[in-house]
Structure formats: C-alpha cells, structure tokens
UniProtKB/TrEMBL annotation:
UniProt-listed Gene3D superfamilies: Phosphohistidine domain
Keyword Nucleotide-binding part of the UniProt annotation: yes
Residue ranges of domain PEP-utilising enzyme mobile in the record: 274-343
Keywords: ATP-binding, Nucleotide-binding
Organism: Candidatus Kuenenbacteria bacterium RIFCSPHIGHO2_02_FULL_39_13
Protein's UniProt name: PEP-utilising enzyme mobile domain-containing protein
Family designation: Belongs to the PEP-utilizing enzyme family.
Any Pfam family: PEP-utilizers
Record SUPFAM superfamilies: Phosphohistidine domain
GO MF term list: ATP binding; pyruvate, water dikinase activity
Transmembrane spans: none
InterPro entries attached to this UniProt entry: PEP-util_enz_mobile_dom, PEP_synth, Phosphohistidine_dom_sf
C-alpha cells in the first residue's frame, strides 16, 4: 500500500476535522473500531465516514479525530431510526445486551491466547459489530435528548437506550484487560494469529492508525505529530479570548471552584477533592472512586447517556458535558463557576 506523507494526509482531511475524544484503549481496539466506521457502522446504521485518525499516546491512550459534520449526520440518522419505532429501539437494545453477554462469557471461557487465536475471526467480527451498535445507541440517544422534546414516546426511547448503554459500559474495559493479559494489546487485530505463529513480542511503539475509507495506514510518529500539530493549530484559532463555555447540563446545580485538567495522566485523579472542578475529555468507569469526590465535572465530549452524566446524576454532582473545548480553554488552577442549570461555565480568573 502506498505510504502517505504528513502533507498528503493533511491535504485530504475534511475542513471540520477535529479532536473528538481521548480514550484509554489499545492499538488492538483501535484497529477494530477504526475499521468498524467503514464496515459495521456504515452497513448497520448508515454511517458515512471519510477519514478517521486514531493517534496513539503513552500509557495506552489514544486521541480520536474525526469530522464533526459526519458524526452529527450519523447521530441524526440513528436518532431518527429509534424515534420511528419503540419496537425497533427495543430490538437494537436487545442486540447490544446479547453482545455484552457474549463477550463477558467469552472472556471467562477462553482465558488463553490459543483460545483467542482459535476464535479470532468470530471474536473480531463480533467486536466490530458490538462497537457499531454501542455507538448507535449512544449517539442516537444523545440526538433525541438534544431535540428537547418532552413527549412520552421519546422519553421512553431515551430511557431504554440509557439503561442499555449503561449495561454494556464495561465491555471495552474488560476487553482491554483481556488483551493485556494475553500480551496482544500492542498488535493490530490481523496480527494476533502471527503472535503465535511467529512469536511476535514487540512491535513499533505508539502506532497511530489512519483510515481513509476502507484503507488503513500505519503512521510513523514523525508524521503523526505533524498532523496533530496542524489540527491543533486549526482548533486554537479563536479560543484566546473566551470567557464563557457552553455545553449540555446533565446534572443540575452550581459550583465555584478550582480547575483540575486531566487529559492522559489519570494518576492525578488521586489528588482531586471537593474544591476541584474536574475538566476532562471524558470520564471512565474505573475513575469512579476519585471522580465522585470532586465539586463539579466539565467534559469536552458526551451527552445524556455518557458515563460522566450517569455518574454525576447518581452522586448529585453539577456536570456539563459536550463543551468540545473545555480542555483547550481551561487551565489548572483557574477559578471558574459551573452553572449546570444553564449549561454554562464562566471563567472568573484567567
């Protein structure tokens, strides 16, 4: 396959290409989820994606970049599908529950690398399809919530999607734990069989993956960093003088406190307390014990069904999600006010 230079890649990126989220997932999951955008997500839920980028970072983190317009269109298609039929919504929910149960059963019954290799075709096909349904439930529910309609049918649909999403939330963390145990988390999914045949123990560290349609490119770090810098430069334009950040208030309340920004160093969560306002790309289930100690939560991504929303409502923590720019604008030590009733963050001290 022809190698793309960083200039070639920058030339093909959509004008609204931007950072979407930071996730703590492996190269192995990246290779499956990236491909799912152009296979399962397209086939099952009419996703129309041109380019996605999975930028590898230390400590098993990845920064995911995509077109905001393409994801907005995908969310609308999923939301409209669910809104058409309560029966159709329940069928998709049941499918996601079956996938969740299938994986939890697989992890228990197939503890060895030999087991994964033997069942690799079925496993990774199911993982791709799981991700597609998982994403459809999340983005479809988020789209319906943002419509701000209060009829009984939509409330029922959102309730079903929220409960289903919460049920499947630990599949990916459990998969990551499984991959790490088998020493396959640094591989692409199509390299797993070679892990046994050729005793592959080490691969190039921090492999970033670019998907252009169905074509996958493995980026060297020099090109990956050049692309990331270019995208960050696009994003920074117009953010210098912002004093108010808007998002979606998902857990009511107001709180004034000190910013603590956590991006990839989850160890800093240990030092969070009730005076802090946690600012993150998105929260994760295994951070729960630390997150529920903070005074308020603000995230870049997320909607009504995201982990931060559910956790904040459970512990009555004021929370605003989906700001898109919080981690870019806010800095550690700043004094801010979170008004989750209005979905507004005010910067009180620069």
């Amino acid at each position: 396959m022809k190698k793309l230079s960083s200039k070639d890649i920058i030339d093909i990126l959509p004008p609204d290409f931007s950072k979407h989220t930071v996730k703590d997932i492996s190269v192995l999951s990246n290779s499956v989820f990236g491909e799912s955008h152009f296979s399962s997500m397209k086939k099952m839920f009419w996703g129309n994606f041109g380019v996605t980028l999975w930028m590898a970072k230390p400590n098993n983190h990845v920064v995911f970049y995509r077109s905001a317009r393409e994801y907005d269109d995908y969310a609308k298609k999923c939301g409209e599908y669910f809104n058409k039929s309560l029966y159709g919504t329940k069928k998709i929910a049941q499918k996601l529950i079956r996938y969740t149960n299938w994986f939890e059963d697989f992890f228990k019954k197939n503890p060895l690398l030999h087991d994964l290799v033997k069942n690799s075709k079925k496993f990774f096909e199911t993982y791709r399809n799981f991700f597609a349904v998982h994403q459809a439930v999340y983005w479809g529910g988020d789209y319906l919530h943002r419509l701000k309609k209060s009829n009984r049918k939509i409330k029922k649909i959102i309730s079903i999607l929220a409960a289903t999403y919460q049920y499947n939330e630990l599949v990916v963390p459990h998969a990551e734990k499984y991959f790490k145990k088998l020493h396959t988390n640094h591989l692409l999914y199509d390299e797993v069989n070679d892990r046994v045949k050729n005793n592959i123990k080490y691969k190039q560290k921090l492999r970033s993956l670019l998907f252009v349609g169905r074509k996958r490119y493995i980026l060297i770090q020099k090109d990956a960093k050049a692309i990331e810098q270019k995208i960050n430069n696009w994003t920074k334009q117009g953010l210098q003088n912002i004093n108010i950040i808007k998002g979606l208030g998902v857990s009511r309340g107001k709180f004034k406190g000190i910013v603590k920004v956590i991006t990839t160093d989850s160890g800093r969560l240990l030092k969070c307390d009730q005076r802090d306002i946690l600012v993150m790309p998105m929260t994760r289930p295994h951070y729960n014990e630390f997150i529920k100690k903070v005074g308020a939560i603000v995230t870049d991504e997320g909607g009504l069904l995201c982990h931060a929303s559910m956790l904040a409502r459970e512990f009555n923590i004021p929370c605003i999600v989906g700001t898109k720019i919080a981690t870019k604008v806010l800095h550690g030590g700043q004094l801010i006010e979170v008004d989750a009733n209005k979905g507004i963050v005010k910067i009180l001290e620069k």
